Each structure stands twice: as structure tokens, then as C-alpha cells.
Protein 1
Amino acid sequence: MMNVPERKQANAPSIAADWLAGFAAALSAQDAAAAAQLFLPEGMWRDVLAFTWTIRTHYGRSEIEVMLRDTLARTKPCNFIIPPERTLPRWVSRAGTDCIETILEFDTAFGRANAILRLVPDRENRMLAWTLNTNLQELRGHEEAYKRPEAQEDTRDFGGKSWLERRREDAAYADRDPAVLVIGAGQAGLAIGARLRQLGIDTLIVDRHARIGDNWRTRYASLTLHNERHVNHLPYMPFPPTWPVYLPKDMLANWFEAYADAMELNVWSDTALIGGRYNDTTGAWELYLRRADRTERTLRPRHLIFATGVSSIPVTPDLPGLKDFAGPAVHSGRLAGPEKWAGKTVLVLGSGTSGHDVAQELHAHGAHATMIQRSKTYVVSLKEAQSVYAIYTEGIPFDDCDLLATSMPYPVLRRSYQLSTAKSSEIDKPILEKLAARGFRLHFGEDQTGFQMMYLRRGGGYYFNVGCSDLIAAGEIGLMQYDEIDRFVAHGARLKDGRIVPADLIVLATGYKNQQDTVRLYLGETTADRIGPVWGFDDNGELRNMWRRTAQPGLWFTAGSLAQCRIYSRYLALQIKALEEGLI
């Protein structure tokens, strides 16, 4: 039997081509059982719209066979190829497993699709599929606008309306309703707005802030992206290569404003959603908006997308005695002017990224900051945190990286993060030991999977060390545990032993509510209960209610990092386009 090192000398493209030939033949013959036998018994198939019109992972041969029986006749997959212009089949290690990784292209009855195949040897030395990921990329006859011939036409119209006049008229919605209303003009809202516009879907984005980008611009001064520039582009417009590796919040905010203008997105700023309801008879929403001039407008779109992200409604916990505190108690997302607290004493409640950044910002401006830790926290150095984006450093085309980023079923993703967490924790051991010695309570994730799974499961609970951990370890920023506190009082926090820890300011770095709470606020209890929680993994290993149809017709969600918004906005837009065209 050939072992893995020997196999790596074998021809990966020919092995992949042999497997693909058998798979394509089985699908062509509508033989679901034969196709399923080309997977390991524990093999996994993650489909993103291509076969199932949803985002779902199928585990084991039996589930894969059932899925194919249900979808083959409708999907009609054909024309499978290993595209020569893309990254060719190669041996790689994913989640500690050596495999042949191959990019595929194929057609379905609905349009063009891509796939990521990973082959490993079974006990009988046969190369079988460990994982397969299939993604619908575009709808036939409904390709993105910039790919169409008319995109190259001359747009001059002597004597007619100027581009600016047409843009203003289009964005006013004086005599029509948009097909889609997007709530939120951050990275999630702008990305889905750009995708929908390219698919010819009339889309309006509204945001409660005065300017596009204010969701970043108005936050604490030191806020900077914690992943590198090359991972974070929005659709169609990459960041300039001259920009810094880690983007400051104001730089990103200004880019958002320029992006909306360049992509010709219709955005109403300083506009708030007041409430609304879905009309089952008309299949449209009735949504009430308050504009910048305090007038109200009712819109009736067919689709409503919440793009308010995992940082939407601030959590302001009702802590014992907090209302008795005589000074200001502000949420970290609303802290401004840290320089005015120079020489003052500040308590920062929370030990996630915002809590650390705010404490370090206040310390840098001369404040005496003490962090109050409420729960165990995962700490990782900024450099080591980039390991979760290692695919983007492999030297392969950017579009191939984005495709690979969708290709990991939950068990593989989980194992991958366990390995990266173990490695980074070993490298970061010196600072972690110093923190522990100071009484800082460390955590490495519910199952040792580190920050990325904590983000995907609950949106926080970790810190990328850019210096605050060193300040805590050195005693320059104070540390206390919340369970030491009896209650807050007028002049600070009273401990259980009776001592008073004084404070002039309390910063609540206490996170944000789930998007289900946003729905509850604006659309009512019934709709919120119908859809259930948003974000976090469901029983299938997919993020709940994200980028796919929900239990409430016409209601969608998008959120996440810039990379997630860029990648998954494609699939959300394709579903809406397919519904608008009557394809599904």
C-alpha cells in the first residue's frame, strides 16, 4: 500500500481527473448511490445553492445519496472540468489531514458553479472524497451587469439628464418602491447592495448614522482592523495596495463612503427603521422609516435584509447599583474624547477586544484604567491571529482563496481551529503565563478552538494582543474580577470586603445583542420567535439564518467580517435574484 509521502510523488492532477470522471459519469446517469460511493463513509458535502438552493452540509454516504436523489433531476449537473487557468490539483494539509485539493467547474440547469474537492486514500488505497463543496456562482442569462455587453456602451446623452441628475432621481424613490430594503450601510449592507445592483435588483440601503461609515467613524479612537488588508476587500473594488496592513477605522469609514458612490448604491443616511410588518397577501413588507428631516416614509419592498451585523444593539446590563453611579457610564462603542479623562480613574467592564482597546487608549491618554473581567478570555497575539487566514498567503489567486474559504464543513473547520489555537497558544506562552500570574483568567474556547469559533458562535470573548496584555502583566493597567464586586455605588465599585474602588468613569465593554433582538425591536415578537436565533451554529453546522432563506418569507440576514460579507453576499444576492425571476 502506498503511504502518503509516496503518494505525494504521484500525479495529483491525474488522480483528481480519474475521480472526477467517475463522479461525472454517476451524476450523468442519475445514479445517486454510485456517486455517494465515491466518498469516504464519513465524507462530507457542503452545498452552497448549487444543488439544494440553500447552505447545508450533508454528512456520510447515506445523507449524500438522499440529497442527490432529491436534486439531480432538477439540477442536471454536467460539463465537469478541472479548469487549467485556476489553481491546479495539489497535495495540501487541511486540518492536519494530507489530501489532494482540486478546484472544479461545472454547469447546472440554473447556471455556472464551482467546487472544491479533497481526496484522501481509504484503507483499501482508493482515493475517495473526504470533503466536497459546491457553490453556485452565477445564473445563466442573469450574469452580473459589468459582464454584459451593454456595460461597454457609450453613456453620453447630449441634451438629456446628466449622470448626477439620474443618480439623484434614482435614489429618491419618489414614485416607486425598491425590490429590496437593506438596513445598515456597513460592510454587510454595502456588499449586498453592490451585488444586488450588479444583478439588476432595485435596492435601497438605509442607515441611522449621519454619514456612510459612521458606524466605524464614531467609535473609540484607536479602533483598527485586526485582520490584514489583503483579506478584507469589498466586492469589485480592492483596497489600494499602498494602504497599511491594518486599516484604521476612519480610513475604512471614508472608503465605505467612496465605495457607495463609486458603486452607484442608493443610500439614505440619517434614516431609521421605525417598524413594519409582512403582508402575506401581497408578499411584500410594509416598512416605516423616519428620514433626516423627521418626515416619515412607508416603503413596500418584497425583501428586507438586516445588515446590522453582530454589533448592532449595545448590551447595557442592569448591574447592581450601576444606576447609583454618579459619573458617566457609557458603552465602549460610544466612548469619545479619551483625552479628557487624563489623570482620572476609569473602570472598564469587560475583557474582550473592545475592553482591552479602550483600556489601552485611556491609559495612553493618562487615565488610570482598571479592567473588570467578568468571564474567562482568550488572548492571542495579533501576528498569531492571522493564522486563520493562512489560505490567503499560499500564493494562489484571490478568487480561489475566497472559494476555499467556503469549503470547510463544520468538523473540519473545528479541527483546523483547534490546531491553530494550540500552535498560537504555545508561541504566546510567555505573555499568557504573565497574565495568569496577575490573576487574569484565560480561556481557549469551548473546545480549544480559539477566537474564530468564539466569534462564529457568540460574537466575542477574545482579545488580539496589541499591547494591552503587556500593560496588564506589568501592572500599568489594573485588573479585578467582577465576582469581587458587591455592587456599584456613587463613587465607584464597592467590593465584597467593604473597600471602595473609586471611579470617575465606567466604560461598559459588554458587547451587543443578537440580530434576533433587532427583529424583535422593529418587527415584533411573532416574527422574532418565528425565525429564532441569528448567528451561532445550528445542528447542521451552519450559521443560523445567515445568507439564506429564513422561516419568515422575505426576511434575510447578512453580517460578519469584511471577508465574510464579500464572499457570502454573492450567494444571498443569487437567491434573491432567483426568487425575483421565478427560478425557485
Note: The longest strand covers residues 127-139.
Protein 2
Amino acid sequence: MTFGLTPQGFNRKRLPDEKASEENALIAEFGDINVQPQSGFGQFIGAMSKIITDIWENMEAVYFSQYPNSAEGVSLDYVVALNGIVRLPAERTRVIGVCQAFESTLITQGSLARQPESNETFYAFEDTIITRTNAVLTKVSVDALAGQIYNCLINSNSYFFSLPRMNFDRLFGTGDSSVASINGVELSAVPFNTDSQTTINDLATAVQALPEVETATPVLGLEINFDLDFVTTNSILATINTVGLTPVVFLTDQATTIALLALEINNYSSVTTCTVTGARQITIVPVDASSFNMDSIVTTGGIGQPVPIDQSIDIVPADGFSVTVDFVTTTGGLAPNQATTFRKPSTLDVVVAKLVTVINAGSDPVTATDNSDQTLSILSDDTEVSFSLSVSVNMTVQEVSSAVIFLASNFGTLPAPIGSLTEILTPISGWISITNLKAGVTGREIESDAELRLRRQNSVRVLGAATVEAIRARILQQVSGVTQAFVFENRTMTEEDIEIIFASDLVTGNEITITVNGTSIPTVTFTSTHLNTMNLLKVQLEAVVGISLVTVGGAGNRTLTIEMTQGFEITVTGVQIVNGASKTTTTIEGGRFPKSFEAVVLGGTDEDVANKIWETKPAGIQTFGNTSFTITDSQGDSQVMNFSRPTPIYIWVDADLTLNAEEEFPSNGIDLVEQDFVTYGETLGIGQDVLWQKVLCQIFTVSGIASGVVEIISTLGENDSPGTYLESNITIGENEIAVFALTRTSAEVI
């Protein structure tokens, strides 16, 4: 027999082979000698055979260490490095701690916090100062009613609301007669008196005479309109806070002159911005509206002198009163009805409510909430993105919370669900509380040999491009943070059929609305039976232009299959089900456009994934998915890359356990069972169904359990109320992923 390297691979000598080889060699050398085990030669042969056999075993190990399917440990690391692959290291769970503290409190690097339920500790990754200029959550109070504009300055954007104000869109003129209604009571008519300024003063005096009004003051508003165009030799002088600015002299035309005026006002120290917002209009945003006053804008010279016509009366209610301007009607004179607008007043609660409304309508990524106690909370939409905040007088920032990155003290798959990190361990003066408003990024153990081999197999075509396997391999291997990726394609000239799969039957009371191409089709109310209702949905879908045929079928007639007319592209973006005793979840599959592909990617940033798809996609082929990101190519052109993030399907587990009297059930057995459910869920990847029996089996990893009843259900929302738990599998679509959590897992001993 041939040993060593052979055409069939490496063939090592075993101990009997080596012993026989040495016996034959000694006999050939010394003649007919005694090689029995008890003899001297036999004992020598026995000792040397073991040593040489060990060498053969090591040579075999060296041989197999060169191949990924047989190499282990460090040897496997060296082998996969030839493909540019590095073993994924162990990682700690990362969570954003929202830390409330006094202004300018320093949370030092290494400060500890703990999850009370799991007893796991986390440490601050870096020094972080808690401040309103780096906030993710704040609480603001409105302290007093005053004649001012209440302003929250968020990331240099002003969100403001004032007390009652009457705005007039033109000057008063001869023949005008104005009637104001306050709190449902019409005042006596105020006639035109000499000029516009005198007339508005008379109207303010009439309003101020009411017992519920503290003051009514004529002011020039922050949105200023002129009644005429500027003309040659006009000189315009603006006065702010009694300070006269440099006069602006007419130059070239109306647009140039009003732009010069806006620039002059913009340069004043109390003004944040002053911009031209119309042919004869400028809008001013002051640094502090409560201490800003536009005294006048006077035009001299020229054959005509435009005047500002945005006149207002600011109203401050008397203590204990609320003031609402119902209307102001002007008759006669220049116009039968002078246009007016009103800012409704009132109590501190109304000021808070209005501020919440304007903040939520703004462009900053924050959400304001009325706390119903004359305070509002402002929360960043993403706790990893902070904002800065300052407020005007008579407002107070009561609480400030900033984002602090915390890492688990131990490596591994330690979950950090929402609201789990709540206990402060390191005493720091001024540090009040901590929580996490979103789940942490779970860490991992060091990548095992089996996982590394599998990842190498998925990446061996990493140098290719324009094929499904190459695109997938390069996303997996070359995009940092990506843990899973799948690529699906439609090679035909027609759009794929779309399947809407209902997890269970529709029930009495359900109202179903399907959104197609961004528009909701008419809502269908449950009628008689599940099948009848599905057929009603079919009728509504077939009425959509571009849909040629809809069929009802699948298991239990719970699938709507949509076929498209050639040349049309249809997208089903959502199915909403409300009312009824239970609301089934739905899965939407297919619908890829003609000649397109869809990459379903877990992990990595949108930008990195989009850039890698652009590098590897075939020319002239569409990308498809529920996420888009615009990149700039080498020619400076914008390219929209579409791909999908797996839609989370939230899994709920309920278990009733029966104990085995012959075994000991641990004191923390319930916690262990619940954690085992979650651990199983973390093994599921994109598109993997949740198998009920596999979930059931997890209870037997803990000693002392004789049997159990385990039921599961899924929801589309993380905090949705689950329907009826069932002993059945949960189907996960090819662009979905099952998500387990301790907060949705319950076990008890019965």
C-alpha cells in the first residue's frame, strides 16, 4: 500500500502499518531476530512506532488544514484569508442609553448601568456630556402668559406661537368701518380716522377696553408686505428696537431693491434670517421673538412711497381670562371685506398644544408630545440623532436627556429589548435616570468554524459581477455589517404576479384596505364569510388600472394572486385591517418589475448597500425593493438604487408548562425557558418559517419539565395586540424575518 501523498489524497500510516514496516526493516537489517512485543527489539519497535505514527497523524492534519472543509481553528482562518475573508470576531451588544441629567453633567467613559431582569451590566463607550445642545429627549414648560411669541429653536429652526393677534392685509382708508368680535361679543364699529395708523390705534383701544384684555398693542408683524413697487430715488429706512438701520436706496428694479432691504435687515444682530418671500414681501425670523420689535419701515423720495401693510394688534389676556378673536369685518371704503387672519389665544394649555402642532409639522426629525400639564416633551425620531434646543422667555427646559452609547460588559448574544437598561450602577452627581427607547444591536459570539465555512461558500464568487450569485457574494463579503443577503430576479418581460397571503381567515367586523401604487382602494368590510370577503377584495383590485386578473386561492382561500397588464407596473405597499375580534397578518410577495432583481439585505448602512449594488448590477437592469438610496456615479449622475430590508414579523409565544416530579426544575426555570424561545428565534434568517414544533421543543432544554402546551402568533407591529394564539406554523415571506423578544414571550407552570 502506498502511503503519503497519492492521487487519491493523503494516506497516513496507522500504528499496525508502522509497526509492520519497522519489523520488516529490522529483520532485513539484522536477520532472523525476535520481534515479539516482550523482546528487546519488540519493545523498541513499539516505542518508535507510536512516535512515528504521531508524526504521520500530524502530517495528515497539516494536509487537511489546507482545505476549508477540513481545516479548523487558526488553520481555517489562514485558508479563508486566501479569499479575502476574515473570521468575524465576538461582538458586544450595543445599546443607546437615553440618560437624563442636569445640564452639563458628564457621563464618564466606563460608567456602568444594568438590566435589572437579566442582571447584565453595560459600560459607557465614551465620555458624553448631557446638554440641551446634544439632546434626544427634553421636557419644556410654558410658565406664563405674556405679550410675546413663544419660540422653540430646534437645530436653528424656529417653531413659534403667539398670543391672540389680529393681522390686516392692507392699510385702512377713507370710508372704512371695522367691527371686531371678541369671545362672541361684537364691539362697536370703529370708523376710519385721519390715517391708517390712527385708525388701528382706535381699534386697539376698543379691544383693550374689554375686561378680559390686559393690553392690545398695534405692531408691525414679522411678515411684511408693501402696497406698491419701489421706484427710482426711493430711500427705505427700517427701524428695529429703536435702532435705525442704514437706508436702502432704490437700485435697478423692484426685485433688486427688496433683496437689498432684506439683506440689510438680515445683518441686524437680533435677526436670524430675513428673506424675500414674495414680489413685495419679506419675512423675518428673529433670534428671540419676545425681545424683537420692528418699529417702522419708512420710504421717502421718488414719485411714490410704498408702505408696509402688514399691520397687527397683539392681545394679552388679563389674568384668569381667555381671549379668542372671532372675526374682524371691515366694510365700506377700499374693500367691502378687509381680509383678516387670527392666531387663537389663550391659556397655557393652548400655547403648549399649538407649539406641539407646529413642531410636528416642521422638518426637524423630532416628535413633540403634549403632556397635559402645561409642558411638552420633544423626542428625537432616532435616538442616535441628537438635536439642539433653546427656548424664549417664560419657557423653561425642565429635563434634558442625551444619547450615550453603552456596550455589554460581556461578549455574545445578549438581548437589549426596549426599556431594559434602567438601573444606574456608577453614582454620578446629576445623573438622574437611564433607559433605552429602542432595542439594542445584539452582539455575537466569535464566528464558529461551521459558520465561517458557510460564509466562505456564499462568498467564493466575490470577484464576479452582474450575476445573482456574484451580487449576493459581494454584498455579503464587502459591505460592513451585513449578516444575511439574498438576491431574487425577474428575467421576464412582464411584472411578476403579486401574492397577498393572509395568515388566517378574515372575521366579522374586519375592515380591509389595500394600498396600490400609493393609493388606497375602497375599503372592504367583512361580508358573510371569509371567502365572500376575499372575492369582494378581488373585485376592488380588478378595478385598478393595470391589474388584469385577480384570483382567490391558496391554503384556505387566503391568497390573492394579482396578474398585471403588460406594460403596467403595480406595487402593493400595504394591507391594513382594523376592527373585528381578530386581525390577521399579511405577507406580500413577488411583484418584481420586468427585467429587475431584488436584493434582500440584513445589516449594513443603506449607503454602503446601494453603492455595492451599483458596482455589481448589470447595465440596463432595474433594481427593486422597499428601500431606496440615491448614489452619485463616477460621471456625476444620480442613480437610485432599490433594495429591500427584511420586513420584521413579530412573534409572540405563550407556554403552559407541566413539571416532572422526578426532576428538579431550576428556580429561574421560567426565565430560562423564555430565553430559549428567543435564542431559537435568533437562529432564524430571512425567509425562514417559524415551525411550531421547533418552538415547542425548546421547553425541553430546561430540566424538570414533563410536557407543555406552546402556542404562537405573529403581528406586523412590535407593540400590536396579538390575536388568538395557535399551534401552527407561521409562514415568513422571502423578504421578511421573524423577530422574537422576551417582552413578547410568556411561560408559566400550571
Note: The longest helix spans residues 40-64.
